Amino acid sequence: MDSSPLQFAKEFARLKTHLADQPAGDARLLLLVEFWASIRQYEASTAYRSYFDEYIPLLLQHINEENLYDLRPVELEGLLGVLCELSRSDAGFAHKIEIQDHLGVTTTELARKLFYAGAVEDGLRVIGGLERDAAPPREIPDGLNEFDAFKLVCKNLAEGKDGLPLVLQAILDSWEGEREAISHEEANCLFVERDSRDRMGLGRLCVLRGSAEQRRRTATTDEVTFENQIKAPDDPFVGVVYDSLDAVRSVLKQTGFSGKAGSRIRARFSIRGSDHTFTGDSIGLAAGLVTFTQLLKPEVLKQERFVAAEAAFTGAVDAAGRVLPVNEESLRLKIERAFFSPIKYLVLPESNVEVAKRYVDDLRKSYPRRQLRLSGVETLRDVIENRNIVRSEKVCVVEFVVRKAYKYSRATKVQVPLLVVLLAVACLLYADLFPKHMPWFDWNPEYVKLTKTGFVALNADSIPLWSVEYECESLEHQSQWKIGDLDGDAENEVAFVPKAVKSSPCESNANLFVYDEDGKQLFQRDCTIHSEYPSDTSIQLPYSPRPIGFVESGDSTIIVTVVIASYPSRTHIKFWSASGDPLGWYINAGTAGADDRHFSSAAHVGFMYLGINSRVGSASLFVLPRDSSFGVSPPYADPEYDLENVKRGNQLCYVLFPPSDVNSCLHYPYNGPFALVVESDAVIRANINQAYEEGQPNIEYLLDMERNFRVFDVKLSDRFKQVRGRLVQEGKLTEVDWSTYTDNLRDVITYWSDSGWVTEGQLRALESQP
Predict the structure, then answer these.
(1) Mean local confidence (pLDDT), 52-77
(2) Mean pLDDT value of segment 659-667
(3) Long-range contact list for 711-720, CB < 8 A, 24+ apart?
(4) Domains in the chain, please, with CATH?
C-alpha cells in the first residue's frame, strides 16, 4: 500500500539514519538497493522528485570496486536491476552517463564472481548485456573445473572483434596471477562483519599483511602493532595474535629452528578495511602463519617458506598451537565469500570441516564446476606442513635456484641476487630442455589435454607426460576422461572415451580405453549395448559419451560408463571392474549421466540416476542394484518401436516427475534433471528444473528409500513461484493455493510396478480405504 507523503518522509529520514550507522560502504549500498522498492512507485509523482534527486546521487556515490568486492552475485544482481530501471526512467535521465558507467563496473564484477564459481555461461550472458556482439560460447566439455572452463572460453573467443575478449583476458590475467602468486608477508583472511545492530552481515575476504622480527634478548614480552597502533593482549580483535606468537615459537622448536624460538617477537600487521568491526578471533591462524614465514625468510641453501595466494584462512590459534573452532553461524558466510573468489584452498579448523562441507555442497548444487577444497587442520604445524598452502621444503642448490627464479618472475617487487639469477638461467635452460631428467619431476597424470585426434596426459605442473592418438580424422570436445587411482598403488590411471565427429566415425567411437600412469593401455571396452533395444545394433552409430564415473566399492573401484544415442534418446550404462571385467548393463529410454549432479552412489541401496524418459516426456529417477544390473527401462510399449521382446530391467525403482503447468505453459517438450542429493540413509532429494531459460524455476521432490522410493513431500523454489506468478499476471495460468498445488504435484508422481504405472495419488487412495 502506498505511503502518504508524511509517512514516506519519515521512511526516508529513517533510511539516512541507518546509513549513518553502518560501518562500511557496501552495507550502506545494500540498504540503498533495498530502499529502491519503497521509492520506485513514486517516480511519476512530482511531489516526490526531491527524494529521487537525493537518492540517486547517494546510490551512485556508493558504487565502486571496493564496495562491490565482497557482495555476493545475488546482491550484485539486485543492484544491476536498480541501475537498469534508473537508466530507463525519467528520474535517472540527468545521471544517464554516470549510471551507464556504474552499470559497466557492476556487470563486470558480477560476471567475474560467476566465472570464479564456474558459471561461465551465465557470466558471458551477463557481460553480453554490454557487449551486444559477443559470440556465443562453444560447448564446454564436462569435467572441467571453474578455471579451466573459463580459460577454454577465453581461448575460443580470443578472435572476437568486439570488446569482450579484452574484458575476459583482463579477468583471466588477474585470476592467473592469484593462482600463481606466493608471499612470505601476506595471507588471505576470512572475516564476518557485524552491522550497526550487532547482527552478522557480509563475509569478507581480506589480505593480512605483516612483518615480524626477533626482539632483543632482554625483551620480556611480545609486541603486536596493528595499523600502526600497539595492541594489548586483551584487545577484542587483535589480542589473539599474542597466542599465535607463542604457537610460532613452539613450532620453531619442533621443526629444528630452536635458535629463533628463544626470543620475543615484534610483529606489525595491517589489513584492508581494518576500520570495520569484525567478529571473533579469525585473524589468529593467518597471523601465526605470516609470522612464521617472516621469521624464516627465504635464504639460499636453507629454507624457502611462501604462503600461497590461492589459500584463505579462518580460525584462532591458542598458545599451544591448537587451531580453535570457528563460530558456525559466521562460517557459512565465510564459505560463501570464498566460494565466489579465486580461492582454491580454504584452511579452517578440523572440527568445522563436516559443517563446512555441507555448506560447500549446497553451493555446488547451483555451481557444479566450482572446486573449493577444504583443508581441515588441528594445529598451526599442520598448516605449515601442507605443501599446497606453504611452500616448505629443503632443496638442493640446483632445484632451489630453478624454483626460486620461477617464483621471483611472478613477484616483481622482489630483487633477485645476481648470482641466483645466473644460476637460475643455466638451470632453467637445462630444465626446459630436459625437464623429465630433473630429480623432482612428477610423473603422475593429473589431467588431459585434447588434441585433434587424441589427447596428451599432463602432470600437476601442466608438463606433458605421454600422448595417445586414435585412427580418426578428428575428435570432438564431448570426448570424456577420468583420472584416478584405480588399482590402489598411489599412481593415477587415465580412463578415456573418445567422441569422433559425426562425419568421421572410427573404430574408437564410444569405446572405453584405460591407461596406466606410464601411458600403457591396460584394456579397451565397448561402451555400447548391441541388440538389446530396437535400432541399437552397431558401434558406428553417432553415440555421445557422458562423464565417466569412478565409484569406490569396498576394496575395489567400479568404472561407470554412459553413452547416449539420439532421436529418440536412449542411454547405455555399463559397469566395469578396475581390470575391465563387465559387472552389469542397463538401457534408459531417454537421457541420464554419471556426473556428480545427476548420479549418486552414496545410498546403500544402489546406483541412483536422475534423467529424462523421452518416451513419456518426463524427468525421471531410477535406481540400479550394486551387484548386477541388467535390462531396459520402462515403458515397454511404444507406437514407434516394438518393445515387447526387450529384456525388462531389474531396476529397484523407476519414478516419473510429470512436467508442471509452468513447463507446459512455456512450451518446453519436457522438464529435466537439475540435482540429485542423498540427504540421509532414508531420504533422497530430486531437484527438477521446469524451464531452462527462466532462471531455474525448480521443484524439489523428497523420496523415502525405506518406502520403495515414494515421494512424501514437494517443495517449490522461490524462482518457480515468481515465474508462475508472472504467468498468472499475463493471464496464462490461474491463481492457486500453494499447499493444494504441491499436494497435486505429489499425487501425479508415477511409479513403475510389476502391473504397470501407478501414481502416488492412486496409492494414497488405496491406503486410505478401510
Answers:
(1) 91
(2) 91
(3) 711/655, 711/746, 711/749, 711/760, 712/746, 713/746, 714/742, 714/743, 714/745, 714/746, 715/742, 716/741, 716/742, 719/694, 719/695, 720/660, 720/662, 720/690
(4) 5-174 (no CATH), 182-393 (3.30.230.10), 397-437 (no CATH), 566-577+591-768 (no CATH)
